[in-house]
Amino acid sequence: MSFYRENARIIAATQDASFASAEGASCLLVEKTMQVSEIIGLIERYAPPGIAASWDASGLQVASRRKSAFHLGVVLDPTPDAVAEALKSGADMLLAHHPLVMQPRFLNVLDAYHAVVSLLLTHDVPLYSAHTSLDANLSGPVAWLAYDLELSGLSALEPSNLPAPSGPGYGFGFVGDLPEAQRFPDFMDRVASLAGCSGWLRCGPVPSLVRRVACCPGSGGSLAAAAKDAGADIYITGDIKYHAALEAPLGMVDVGHFSLEHTMMQRFADLLRNEAPDIEVSFFHSRNPLHVACPGCGKDSGAA
């Protein structure tokens, strides 16, 4: 089946479901709505546009004619499958971490970008992205691992020049101290359990004990030197490149781009649900696109 035909199938399958859901919800939950502008304002309390990286495309990705919404769907990536699932569940506004595209382009290729835009425009559903605007607010869900590990003295690895109203401030990556030193294997078992990852990549010198922890969810290889300068015993991030690993200035652990950010968006959905009781907020789980395969053992972490 061609990508275009599959996209048409998804649109047809979700159109009746989402419209029926919207009609039913409008009858049963008339009072449970918020203005789209109010929802965006709530999102931006935790992901201020002004702190986003200059190269980023955070913000409204696809506009809509609708003025109010009753069901906010939250996803990590705005993929065709994630968007279709959210629409089938009745979401009439979507929030993603990663932008739909970094640079605007024509819809002249029948690809995933075309499929998502088709779905959103067909259902008149707006899409908002909180990307580096969320990453740079250490008082928000980006620092969930720091709070779960009970790190103290939290500060940014790459501080922003913009003042934060409270908390550890704005900036990318964070560093802080554990309540007490832990053996490296015990520490990593705990991190893996919290992040829901079955394995990780490691490079650089391995500390026998871990007390000071640095982290940057997503792709944070560029902050390795900052983590070293901050006195970290270990640096947790994703997408570490080969040559960066060869020159690792400290112990570095790559848990993948997916795991820390997937949990971050789940926590963000929980936060928004508490802050916006007048609407439904749902988090739609996704699967890591990278699977760990074991040659000869018949096991693949991506298998159903």
Keywords:
single chain, 304 residues, alpha/beta, Udp-n-acetylmuramoylalanyl-d-glutamate--2,6- Diaminopimelate Ligase, Chain: A, domain 1, 2 domains, six-stranded mixed β-sheet, five-stranded mixed β-sheet, 36% helix, globular, disordered N terminus
Structural class assignment: alpha/beta
Low-pLDDT runs: 1-29
The domain tally reads: 2
Bulk shape? globular
The strand count comes to 15
Examine the coordinates and then state which fold CATH places here, giving the name of the CATH topology of the largest domain: Udp-n-acetylmuramoylalanyl-d-glutamate--2,6- Diaminopimelate Ligase, Chain: A, domain 1
- For the biggest β-sheet, the strand order reads 7-8-10-11-12-9
How many DSSP H or I helices? 10
Instruction: Give me the strand/helix succession.
Output: HEHEEEHEHEHHEEHEEHEHEHEEE
N- to C-terminal distance: 21 Å
Mind telling me the CATH class of the largest domain? Alpha Beta
CATH superfamily of the largest domain: NIF3 (NGG1p interacting factor 3)-like
Average pLDDT, rounded to a whole number, is 89
Q: Please name the CATH architecture of the largest domain.
A: 3-Layer(aba) Sandwich
Strand content: 15-25%
How large is the radius of gyration? 21 Å
Main sheet specs: 6 strands, mixed
The helicity comes to 25-40%
